[in-house]
Design a protein that fits this description.
Blueprint lengths: L2 H39 L4 H32 L1
């Protein structure tokens, strides 16, 4: 395989890995919107809703960081 083709494929793979951050952001926005809606419907459960939202956002952000790590590895190692 030609070197330029290999580098192009690595760049495409890195771009796909970075897309995890994009999708994670969309998911976090959707979850925040649903949490605001849930607090509006049931204000007494605000503390439980907030804690579950923060836990879910942390898990989603971890997935985005792993995607960024994979992208860096692909770019700088290969």
């Amino acid at each position: 395989m030609d070197v330029s083709v290999g580098k192009g494929l690595v760049a495409i793979a890195a771009a796909l890995a970075v897309m995890t951050g994009i999708f994670s952001t969309v998911g976090q926005g959707y979850a925040a919107a649903k949490a605001v809606e849930a607090v509006g419907k049931n204000p007494e459960a605000e503390s439980k809703i907030r804690s579950m939202l923060i836990l879910g956002a942390g898990i989603a952000e971890t997935a985005a960081i792993y995607g960024m790590l994979i992208a860096f590895l692909l770019i700088f190692v290969f």
